[in-house]
Amino acid sequence: MTDIAQPLTTADGKPLKGALLRAQARARRRAFLLVLPLLAFILITFVFPIGQMLYRSVYNDGFTWHEDVTSGDRTPIMTNLATWFEANPPGTEPDEAAFAALAADLVTLRDLKAPGQAGTRINYELSGSRSMFTKAARSAKKLEPPYKEAILELDKDWGNPELWQAMRGASSSYTTNFYLAAIDRERDASGSVTMVPENRQVYVKLFTRTLSLSLLITFLTFILAYPIAHLLATLPLRHSNLLMILVLLPFWTSLLVRTTSWMVLLQSQGVLNDTLVGLGILGDDGRLQLMYNRAGTVISMTHILLPFMVLPLYSVMRMINPSYVRAARSLGATSWTAFRRIYFPQTVPGIGAGALLVFILAVGYYITPALVGGADGQLISNLIAFHMQKSLNWSLAAALAALLLAGVLLLYWLYDRLIGIDNLKLG
Amino acid sequence: MTTRTSNDAFVEFERVQKSYDGETLVVKDLNLTMPKGEFLTMLGPSGSGKTTCLMMLAGFETATHGEIKLDGRPINNIPPHKRGIGMVFQNYALFPHMTIAENLSFPLEVRNIGKSDREAKIKRALDMVEMGAFGGRRPAQLSGGQQQRVALARALVFEPELVLMDEPLGALDKQLREKMQFEITRLAHDLGITVVYVTHDQTEALTMSDRVAVFNDGVIQQLAPPDELYEQPANSFVAQFIGENNTLEGEVQEIRDGIAVVRLDDGELIDCKPVNVSRPGERTRVSIRPERVEFNKSRLKAGAHTLKAEVMEFIYMGDIFRTRVRVAGNDEFIIKTRNAPDQVRLEPGAQIEIGWLPEDCRALDA
Ligand SMILES: Nc1ncnc2c1ncn2[C@@H]1O[C@H](COP(=O)(O)OP(=O)(O)OP(=O)(O)O)[C@@H](O)[C@H]1O
Ligand SMILES: [Mg+2]
């Protein structure tokens, strides 16, 4: 028995606790050095870009700063207007002072050759305003007081209160307007949040469509994967290996090849339709539209994401001893009851993992809907890509992406609350 | 033992054969009748077809040929859940996502038994295996022995008349196993249930059963009460498989008055009881239990054949002495003697003479 009052020491009399800490510190340092490259990689390729994206979704300096491309000098722009906006509350009718400030700022824009940049920023919120800026800036030097008449003379749209609301919003680099836009909202002339007109409501509809299609795809993969996974888990190894190869085959072929082959199969002049017409099941004018619409997106994505459902299910089912079902049967349960009450509940962690995986992948899927989705099979990620590449409204793209990310995180949190993340079995 | 006629048979296997692959028979021509209330053990080496028989009885495998009857009814076409047979699996197969009480409730729920009835039965079954306090726990929170008890309670809670157990104690340590052996036999006896029990362990088979069926290669080698099995093995497989056994090889010289004279391979003659030898000239394997070998001349019958032996090794084992001797060219011949105050301790190298009663020395198939 050791004396508890005395601190324990090592053989050579040093305190045991200190020795233990020192020994562990060395091991910890070594472990840290080993993961350092991965940590750096994740920081550079994951955490930093996401941070950048989140930042961009609330920060846009198109109407506040000009950066010279060659020298890199940054000059503030639209300062006079910003001062006027600060002095007057939202909804104030722009007066002579406001137009004088605008005229002065237009002169600065012209000197910096930046009217396009400022116009683009306003154009995000009110289309058609970019050309007003470039036109006005060209004649900015010639403007004379009273500025209000002079500018309205150039284009009477300069009196549009929505334009002034848009400029007020853009006069600060930090804004939530992109988030509003991402959920089909905007600020009206008086500065309060309203829905955008019906013909411009796209994002909420797309979010809903993305959500519902992803749910549908998750459900379809589940329905298809469950029996396959069960077969894989119960078949003798010889046969199950072959089946496993068939399941994994999609992983080994390029996504593009697979998507194109779906096109070949499913388009209206494709193999499937030709066969059905050839067999007389369909008339030549009744060919099924299975491509370039929602059906195309659902079919191709279900196929592509199927392995992500099969593998977690398989790994869970393989661990379920067949004697459980036998025990249930011997205790008097029909095979259906044995499945429902004994087998199925034990596969729930696999279902959860597979569904979470497939759903998250589906929500962010881009290439397949872009290729086979047509007009109404596009998902939110296609719109994000559109804003990244075509309209160059990166802030809006970032806001949309951030909402998507928030949705996925919410889902993850819900999963954790309902099933528990430690129940997740991925393979 | 009472004589068994087919009208008091509860479980019957009639000429049952089973093949998994269509090429080899795993169970060959099995005939077995069990009366109600019997505790029957299937004992045999690995792969001899014990589990297969149990699975056919439970309904998880179909017999390739032959008929299995339960209480006079053929059950070949009855699905497992309608057979009403309780079963204890080797790995217990307690449902991991249910509590102990829910596990026991399951067979009652599928039988549509009312809630209050269910609770009473669950309580009674858990108390029976002294697990009453554990109803709220999950199987993973129990020790192996406790899980075993729960599995037993679950197999009994719906009051089946027939309970099958496939090596239910295989995973337990020796002490716990002995305790459970006792409890299982007590319960089976108290409840009057019929039990088919599968084990590898011959001690278990001998101590627990009313009758033991020794399996080898898909065939029942002998079906007999434990004492008969041990003292009167029907063939050399059973003699070898059950308990410790000495064998000497030789040829039958003559059979007369229920005594077979066997000439051992080194030329010596001994008297045996003929079991499955019938005519002179046949090869035979003679089997003698180590504790029936006698080297004290005064305890042998006058005129009994004796053999010269040389002591090779003496092993002190506490309650018994184990002496290894060389006799008739066999130097693995064992003699067991009780550690009594007047018992002789044989020194290695000593020359002795050994003998036995003719009825303890059985001439079996070669
Ligand atoms: N599902 C099966 N498919 C094919 N062969 C099987 C199957 N189950 C058992 N066998 C074969 O049947 C033979 C008997 O098996 P069984 O499980 O009945 O033996 P056992 O006596 O229970 O052995 P153990 O003591 O090892 O449990 C073995 O040769 C085994 O390989
Ligand atoms: Mg077995």
From TrEMBL, chain B:
The keyword Secreted does not apply. It catalyses: ATP + H2O + polyamine-[polyamine-binding protein]Side 1 = ADP + phosphate + polyamineSide 2 + [polyamine-binding protein]Side 1. Keywords: ATP-binding, Cell membrane, Membrane, Nucleotide-binding, Translocase, Transport. Its EC number is 7.6.2.11. PROSITE patterns: ABC_TRANSPORTER_1 (PS00211), ABC_TRANSPORTER_2 (PS50893). GO terms for cellular component: ATP-binding cassette (ABC) transporter complex. Signal peptide: none annotated. GO terms for molecular function: ABC-type polyamine transporter activity; ATP binding; ATP hydrolysis activity. InterPro entries: AAA+_ATPase (IPR003593), ABC_SmlMolc_Importer (IPR050093), ABC_transporter-like_ATP-bd (IPR003439), ABC_transporter-like_CS (IPR017871), Mo/tungstate-bd_C_term_dom (IPR008995), P-loop_NTPase (IPR027417), PotA-like (IPR005893), Transp-assoc_OB_typ2 (IPR013611). It comes from the Bacteria. The keyword Ribonucleoprotein does not apply. Belongs to the ABC transporter superfamily. Spermidine/putrescine importer (TC 3.A.1.11.1) family. Part of the ABC transporter complex PotABCD involved in spermidine/putrescine import. Responsible for energy coupling to the transport system. The complex is composed of two ATP-binding proteins (PotA), two transmembrane proteins (PotB and PotC) and a solute-binding protein (PotD). This is Spermidine/putrescine import ATP-binding protein PotA. It comes from Ruegeria pomeroyi.
